[in-house]
Write a structure and sequence with these properties.
Elements (H helix, E strand, L loop, with lengths): L1 E5 L6 E5 L34 E6 L7 E7 L32 E2 L3 E6 L13 H18 L7 E8 L11 E7 L4 H17 L3 H12 L3 E4 L3 E5 L9 E5 L11 H22 L4 E6 L14 E6 L6 H6 L8 H10 L3 H14 L1
Antiparallel strand pairs: 1-2, 1-5, 3-4, 4-6, 6-8, 7-8, 7-12, 9-10, 10-11, 11-13, 12-13
Helix pairs in contact: 1-4, 4-6, 6-7
Bound molecules: zinc ion (2 copies).
Length: about 350
């Protein structure tokens, strides 16, 4: 069964994808990463992955590759046009009196971006030029996906470390294109439109302008991008990287921007490693819906979430997160490339003196 259901009370969408259940799953929490004799993502083992979608040849040898995008062997979504329309569930949203969204076939694209032919583990092991090339191939793939009218949104994400949901250690990220706009993007687009209506400007441009002038949460910046700890970060060190010029969707970036983004992404990931002792993490590209008309005032961003605390009962029950490290303290530690505990000690000392 591959089906997308909408919770009638919260509006959250859930992908029911039973086909993934029998495998070590990228979306479940495991406690260790399988150590394999033969890594399917390493150079020479190309036959261990499903069909290749895009390939960036290595600059020194066109027979070799630098980055490959391949179909996910265990996709969360069925290929387009391959599933039967979902039936009405016996107990489900349709039995409720108010307007609800019927289940939908979970069809789309689920691919793996293999970032390097070598068995490197952390993205920070890659050179900045290499990471820029990865971003360029991702942009190219999203441009292709934009031409498929059934697909409404795309997300690129990375899981690193067991608590980040990774099961294969070789540096890779994933891309999922959905036949719907997920609630997060939908809600953000409404906020962006409403902010524009009231102020005539973009909410994320205004937010960046505020963060860059106050600087308490600033982590890093270069000529194209700013990085800051999110004001209401859900995890210690949650960092947003935003393009300084207004861009609705990720495909608007040019090659120079890709290089600047690679530079700051590389630096922020290193800062997170230094401050939080090489944690598991996730990163996500949040970008506007694929059709060019909706969400006119959306502004894309890159979100990095170190996985320091566990989502437990309170978080499941309320949807609220408890973050034990203020974004201001996290940003200070990251700016100074110090362990987070060092900042706590300094603040305590200042308080004692006071
Ligand atoms: Zn490998
Ligand atoms: Zn903007």
């Amino acid at each position: 069964m591959n089906e997308i259901r909408c919770d009638p009370l919260t509006g959250f969408r859930v992908l029911i994808a039973e086909g993934r259940g029998a495998r070590p799953c990228d979306f479940t929490i495991s406690h260790q990463i399988e150590s394999r004799q033969r890594c399917p993502f390493c150079f020479g083992n190309e036959n261990d992955t499903p069909n290749e979608v895009l390939r960036l040849p290595a600059s020194h040898d066109p027979e070799k590759w630098q980055t490959r995008i391949v179909s996910n062997k265990y996709p969360a979504l069925a290929p387009l046009g391959r599933t039967l329309p979902p039936g009405n569930p016996s107990v489900g949203p349709l039995s409720l009196p108010h307007e609800t969204i019927p289940p939908q076939a979970a069809e789309g694209i689920h691919e793996v971006i293999i970032e390097s032919p070598d068995h490197c583990i952390r993205t920070t092991d890659l050179m900045v030029d290499h990471l820029a090339a990865v971003l360029q191939i991702v942009r190219k793939r999203i441009e292709q996906i934009k031409q498929i009218p059934e697909l409404k949104s795309v997300q690129v994400f990375k899981n690193v470390g067991p608590t980040g949901g990774a099961t294969i250690e070789h540096a890779h990220s994933q891309l999922i294109a959905l036949p719907l706009v997920p609630p997060t993007i939908e809600r953000e687009a409404v906020v962006a439109d409403s902010h524009f209506e009231h102020t005539g400007s973009c909410v994320l441009c205004d937010l960046w302008s505020n963060e860059s002038s106050h600087r308490q949460r600033l982590v890093d910046e270069n000529s194209g991008f700013g990085a800051f700890c999110a004001y209401a970060g859900r995890q210690p060190g949650e960092t947003w990287i935003v393009p300084k010029k207004h861009q609705r969707d990720f495909t608007a970036i040019d090659d120079t921007d890709c290089h600047l983004l690679a530079e700051i992404l590389h630096s922020v990931l290193q800062q997170i490693d230094q401050t939080f002792n090489v944690p598991a993490y996730n990163y996500m590209l949040l970008t506007a819906p694929l059709d060019g008309n909706s969400a006119a005032h959306y502004h894309w961003r890159w979100v990095i979430v170190p996985r320091i605390t566990i989502r437990a009962g309170f978080e499941w029950g309320t949807g609220c997160f408890i973050n034990p490290v203020s974004p201001e303290r996290a940003a200070e530690a990251m700016r100074r490339r110090l362990p987070i505990d060092d900042i706590a000690v300094e603040q305590d000392r200042e308080r004692d003196i006071a």
